[in-house]
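Quick one - inputs below.
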Amino acid sequence: DGGITQSPKYLFRKEGQNVTLSCEQNLNHDAMYWYRQDPGQGLRLIYYSQIVNDFQKGDIAEGYSVSREKKESFPLTVTSAQKNPTAFYLCASSKRGGSYEQYFGPGTRLTVT
Amino acid sequence: QKEVEQNSGPLSVPEGAIASLNCTYSDRGSQSFFWYRQYSGKSPELIMSIYSNGDKEDGRFTAQLNKASQYVSLLIRDSQPSDSATYLCAGISGGSYIPTFGRGTSLIVHP
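Output:
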């Protein structure tokens, strides 16, 4: 079964700690994306990557970091520099070329106290 | 600034009725459009894509695109309570692969 997995589903952290969110896909998609969604808000793009070992900042990259060492994996680290990290984090992937339809993983809900 | 606008709703329709969801976009270069359904607490699920002017039907769903007027709509026929969700509209400009998402319209289908 092809799809995108994110883990964990729920994550609780204390303020000041870095935390890494996992995203894996077996759709053979080249492009991967990280979004953040806050209650009543739209999706905001954090980082995206079109190919392995290359990624670009999105609209709200401050306080986040990513890596793309494998085509299948695009982990997101939420650092202590992120002022308001509590949110619903969504990973997506798409083919490179064509329509660029994005498919989303189930999401990780991060709560920082 | 590329924008995709949606009425936040909620749009309330009775079961069995047609639900009409609308979306306007600012970038005339936008070429691909998508509708996602997002249940509360869940991730968005792609339900329709449309690339050319006119209508595209898939089961109870019909997407409509009018590039001259810069709007996209989604019609849901025979609405069911299980259709109650937030519907996100997204568009991609030619030459880009990053979609611009609207904030979504909340749909409530009541029995």
